[in-house]
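User: My collaborator sent over this chain with a note saying "see what the structure looks like." That's all I know about it. Can you take a look?
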Amino acid sequence: MVTTNSTCSNSCLCSCRSRVSKLVASGSDENNFRLSDNVVPSHYEIALEPDLTNFTFTGSVSIDVKVLKSTHVISLNAKELSITEAYVQNESGTQMSGCVELDEQTQMAHIFFVGKVGAGLWQLKVNFTGVLNDSLKGFYRSFWTDANGNKHAVATTQFESTDARRCFPCFDEPHFKATYKAYLTVDENLTALSNGRIVNVVKHAETNKKTVEFATTMKMSTYLVAFIVGEFESSEPVFVNGKQLRIWANPGKKQLMPFALKSASHAINWYETYYGVPYPGGDKIDFIAINDFAAGAMENLGCITFRETALLVDEATATQSELERVAEVVMHELAHMWFGDLVTMKWWNGLWLNESFATFMQLKALAAWRPSWRIWDKFAMSRAAASRTDALNSTHAIECKVLKPEDAQELFDVISYEKGCSTLYQIEQFMGEEVFRAGVSHYLKAHAFGNTETHDLWDSLELAGNDAKLTFSVRDIMDAWVFTPGHPVLKVSTCSKLSGFVEITQSPFKFLSPTNPDTLYPVPVTMKIVRSGQTQVTKFVLTGKSQTVYVGEDFDYLVVNAGGSGFYRVIYDNALAAKVASNVQANLGVVERFNLVNDTWAAVRSKMVTTSDYLGLVELFKEENDANVWSVISGSLSGLYSMVDKSQRKNFARFVRNLARPAFAKLGYETKADDSIHVRQLRSQLMAALGTIGNDKAVQAKAAQMFEAWKKDKGSIDPNVLPAVVSILACGGDKKRYYEFKHLFQTATTPQDANRFMYALASFTDSELLAQTLNACVNGEIRSQDAPFVIGRLLGIDDSKLVAWEFVKANWDKMVELYPANVFVRMVGAVASLDTTSDLVADVRSFFASHKVESGSMALAQAFEQQTINSEARAHHSVALTAHFTK
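Assistant: Without extra context I'll predict from the sequence alone. Here is the result:
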């Protein structure tokens, strides 16, 4: 659709329309959404004046551009803006006015000139107005409420991936890097923040306003520009290697800032040392908590924005997982200052170069800061989540083609983040940490302030590998893993023809029949062979369908994917499995035990292993002492619970109690002074399992007692146990408990407690209470950034999913209007749980056949496939499960 802008005069209007139509019709779909390289920006000066009463803004932008070939038209990106004037001028004083056509479909502003804009340097000047939207993208409005119940507005930005164009006309593609100087005119009492340091403030006494001038930024992409205006207070500044760091939030939250500040201080120093490249963005970094924020955080250069839960935390009352979350997000965004901001992907197909690396580096930095947290052990859970999605035929490669803006948005998922991180960790561990580090440092130095494609990274890693005399090609391995969707399963069996050998055979691992069954991966295999207490470790690349490997005749057991860093699954034949499982606690490390359970559970879902065999394996973990391993056991038990016939659920609960009680009995309810953080987390895991699917009455009664004590004194119980207590009480809770939790949600003094009690409301399945929770998701009681996740939880619970689905259908149009698109997609993915009957599956498919989801085609395809997997698994295993629990 082409719309007309008022800057076009009547005399040239028809000509403009004709030219735009020809531009749109002339190119391929890809070209339609991409700007010409004929006009290249080098510097922006942006002036904005937001109105926090009427939620509008006015602005002007002056862009220094180089025209490579004379032209009648300059095209740049603009969306939901009204352009009131556009012209160009050069150093000699030549000025040419243009008429503007806005193309809503391609999100472009085409500026036409009667004469030609000659090749050379020009300034493009555009004046415009816009609306501070409520979509949580572009230049948008957010709100917070003070202690007296007064509502306050904030203007803030979120530009990734392609929403800078909603704030100012610009060349909104990553490779059009430029420098930026900003001016914000705001009410005198408000704080104004942007990427650069404040260099001047001019007060306007007649209007009670001020204009805040910011320092010019380094060369960067448009999606990294940021503007924030509102009532904020900051932490005291700290300095790290000459950089000033500050946390900002709405007034009254200073006590929640210190932990993030400590995390950031470590990360800046560590990254500068690891990369051998100083922080490139200037001499200040602000970290700002925003109340309404669709993502977790955003790596705007020097002006990083966050959800409150990802930045503000009370170190004394938070759980270990909540502290880890804040540290990880802070370190993730700071890693982007190098991977993404300094060196940027050329186009959005290379998103993984940003996100996989930031995820990988956050873990490296956090492991260096808090080694006792064993963060790589915890990452096993994230890697497992990625492998579940990657085991779908509807998965995508880590890097894949992007044509339109909505295509880019679909790539912000576990494949681009967690699978990409996993493949980086896999190659780092295989080639050696220092060799990998040398390659990364070379990459950043070689491409500083520029844009890259994936092959540029391979060049740097290959160079480092050659210097280290590696015997394999990093490029050959990583090309396959980055550009090929899916991952393999390695079947390890005793070689029948050759004594002392094992045969390793690979095939694509899929929950359903693979669409490309002949796909092969170059698999970096690390294998340990244990004999008489001595461990031998060997590494090799499995390049073909199978390989025969010598292990000797007298080994006690062997482990393929030793250490657990490989992004592939392993299944042993019965004889080898028996050796590994002979003493799982002694034979296997934490991640190796995690992988053994996770790989076997995945094999159950793909119908390669029986549920009885799996339950037999799980029973070997009665003495399990790691919370991460118990997390995958608990998750699988929840999956089995949904498959078990209701008549057998009492017996299933007894199985859970028998499994979890031995380890829990050793720990007890009370925290001991010398308990490690992992023991504290394990206590919570076991207690939650016993009190929910285990239906342990004693644990449920104790949870109620502990909660009463917590209400009087928050220090009376270990914060790590509180989530288990809350989940136990919410499961089957009554109206009194519901309203108590609702009040605690509404009056919480930390973002973590607010989230805890908000999500707990989704566990109350009484029809009246369920209706209240659903209505809260559309009437504003639950913020639009959170509501889709609450509904997603309700869609995943057997006792609420049908009611929740009917509510979604009835309120679809309202949800589309209210919810941010990227969060809305997450809710849509939860329909995978609507799988209990063929009629329900058909109803879901029918509904989405006539209801489009923005940037949701991939998420829907994956949800539909998950439905099929769940339905087939239930049909395949239900009889065997019933038989198992009626013995």
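A starting point for your reply to your collaborator: Confidence is low (pLDDT under 50) at residues 1-14, 23-28.
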